[in-house]
Amino acid sequence: MTVLKVSPHGSFIVTKLCDSVVICEDIKNQKNWGNRTQNQPGFMVYLGCQKSEALEYINRFRTFYKCQWCEVRNPKYLTDFEVEIKIKGMRRTASVTALGLDYLVESEEEKQLGATYDEYNYYCDGYIPRW
Fold first, then answer.
1. Segment 9-25, tens digit of pLDDT
2. Would you list the domain boundaries of the chain?
3. H or E stretch including 121?
4. What confidence tens digit (pLDDT) does each residue in 82-102 have?
5. Average pLDDT, the chain
6. Which residue of 17, 48, 116, 126 is most buried, as measured by CB atoms within 10 A?
7. How far is 89 from 5, CA to CA, in rounded Å?
8. How many CB atoms lie within 10 A of CB 74?
9. For residues 86 and 104, what is the distance between their CA atoms, to the nearest angstrom?
10. Using CA atoms, how far apart are residues 122 and 5, in angstroms rounded to an integer?
11. How many Cβ atoms are within 10 Å of 80's Cβ, its own excluded?
12. In a 3-state reduction of DSSP, which class is residue 34?
């Protein structure tokens, strides 16, 4: 983890979790992003990807992560990628009903380490192809 930016009053901290995932934590709960817990601040997730991958990621976020608000935009934090997806409402950890930030970071790290397409899909959504 690497801290990329801290707002002047310390209200927001932007942290890079892996090469393609950054979070912005709302330390003072000014934005009410809906995923604050008793012990941890709310946060927004940013995922860097290629334009051709964006729709597939958004579908995955809506289906498996239960995040209904996603915005594709020009990269602000992840400038090594064509686009950045801004995701609101993701959980920090996976639960019975939805995957979480922990799962996203793990699957993105696997992808960056050279996992095959089928291996990556397995880590993202549990899909195992049957030939």
1. 888 999 999 999 999 99
2. 2-91
3. helix 117-125
4. 999 999 999 988 888 888 998
5. 86
6. 48
7. 21
8. 9
9. 14
10. 33
11. 8
12. coil
